[in-house]
């Protein structure tokens, strides 16, 4: 049965993972996301659904434990925050290269370096550009509420398995730590090993005489074969852009100025739109939900309607580059953001829009 | 009447056959390389124990990266040093399967040190096969953590200087001290008796896994003729004279 609860974003991730029927979680503590593994360890899902939960010796180990589990066709996930996600990049590149599904949650904190434990959105570029070596991308989802933290666990797995590609939930310390009402879905059954072997014929389930051996690998030494493989992977990304772009529009119908923001920043920008409209400025907000695939087509459409766009993010200007690429010079695109764990107020966003487009 | 070949090739005369678990692929190893022998022994043991359908192997980054081309089982190719973590993930999610990793000294004892120690310390119910040839074979003969004092490698061309480079790392002794390991042994594969012993160890390790005893760890002291810049016969002699005193063969732990 579904259930209404008040909880933190990080706790919602853990609850949703169990209820969705995730097979394994491997993690390493880091603020501001440690509640994910703490909640799982408290709930002891290995006694109920059979879900494996293991604290690894590092993020390098946790992503590679996931790599092993994902190869078996299992639904595996991890969560971490910025420095830990940096350590996972080699593993993510292997997972993408071996075409394996998995879900990684990044509850972003401010960087560079050890940085701060306060919220930031400064891992955007890493997230949407693959992050590790090679030509690959992650499917990137950006929740802006505790409800979406819970819902995107399922969505991320569905997309990861649809494309056999790792998916990343790009959250931040604000969404991870804040408490909100959340509707948790009813418990689903985990897939049996037999069902799995039929559904995922590529998985390492032990070689029966009825099939060839399965090899999970990302090595290909023949350049022509490897180029063909790369084309195949790129075709998946094209398909994602056709079929799985998600975004939300807020008062865009008659907008003359557009705010573009995701995650926690988008929540703040909703208020800014309201304040701008009270001042008689017709503002709207486009909130990308999938950061990869990016809703560039939608932005390009809006570029024919608005006089200017302002990308608002908790970073020095990373999302703004994708917005500029999308509209390709059709309208001025400016950036506003705070950094280092500082969160902008709705009023600061109003001021930034006025300063960039309406004054002087 | 003279005996002809066709008269000799008869089932009743068969004394040795290639195990059916070895594929027809030609191995890519250099002549005399220890990897080829150990690959074959693993195939034989899996075949003899009749656990082909229930075994998942994890290959490393190193000369044996393509080991998955040679044995007819399901495989997972790990990143450099991460095989114990990959093996952990597989075994935790498929405890009904036999899981083993196969790693070189650079892979297991340098870049993968943390993964090795923690998998052994948790007592992951897997087998780790550790091919110690004292060198980075695949990348062209650089110094490994196990390179002997004074031994030449491309990144210590004047011989390993322990003041500068540190001393050879004895990973097998280290993991033997960890509570999670149930069986730790050091073997070789250069003579018929050595091969027989190694095979026995491999069999025992798979049986330990069946009995859920914890981590079995088998080091195989081996040669790398290309990296050592010797022919295979010289390599074996050099190994006996120089490697075995530092890495003595035999069981270190068996509980
Ligand atoms: C992260 C990373 N660093 C370095 C390498 C390059 N590399 C490939 S194999 C290898 C060393 C292999 O030596 P060893 O593990 O002893 O195996 P051998 O070839 O001797 O069997 C290195 C350094 C790599 N592939 N990945
Ligand atoms: S380089 Fe050394 S370890 Fe690699 S295949 Fe040749 S002999 Fe074996
Ligand atoms: Mg080596």
UniProtKB/TrEMBL annotation, chain A:
Transmembrane segment boundaries: none
UniProt xrefs under Gene3D superfamilies: 3.40.50.920, 3.40.50.970
Pfam families documented for this protein: PFOR_II, POR_N
InterPro entries: 2-oxoacid_oxidoreductase (IPR052368), PFOR_II (IPR033412), Pyrv_Fd/Flavodoxin_OxRdtase_N (IPR002880), THDP-binding (IPR029061), Transketo_C/PFOR_II (IPR009014)
Keywords: Oxidoreductase
Coiled-coil zones: none
SUPFAM superfamilies, alphabetized: Thiamin diphosphate-binding fold (THDP-binding), TK C-terminal domain-like
Record-annotated Pyruvate flavodoxin/ferredoxin oxidoreductase pyrimidine binding domain positions: 15-209
Domain Pyruvate:ferredoxin oxidoreductase core: 255-349
UniProt KW Oxidoreductase keyword: yes
GO molecular function: oxidoreductase activity
Chloroplast listed as a keyword: no
NCBIfam families: PRK07119.1 (NF005507)
Protein name (database record): 2-oxoglutarate ferredoxin oxidoreductase subunit alpha
Organism: Natronoflexus pectinivorans
From TrEMBL, chain B:
Keywords: Oxidoreductase
SUPFAM superfamilies: Thiamin diphosphate-binding fold (THDP-binding)
InterPro entries: 2-oxoacid:Fd_oxidoreductase, THDP-binding, TPP_enzyme_TPP-bd
Protein name as it appears in the record: 2-oxoglutarate ferredoxin oxidoreductase subunit beta
Gene Ontology MF terms in the entry: oxidoreductase activity, acting on the aldehyde or oxo group of donors, iron-sulfur protein as acceptor; thiamine pyrophosphate binding
Domain Thiamine pyrophosphate enzyme TPP-binding: 75-220
Record bears the keyword Oxidoreductase: yes
Species for this entry: Natronoflexus pectinivorans
Organism classification: Bacteria, Pseudomonadati, Bacteroidota, Bacteroidia, Marinilabiliales
PANTHER family: 2-OXOGLUTARATE OXIDOREDUCTASE SUBUNIT KORB-RELATED, SUBUNIT OF PYRUVATE:FLAVODOXIN OXIDOREDUCTASE
An annotated GO BP: small molecule metabolic process
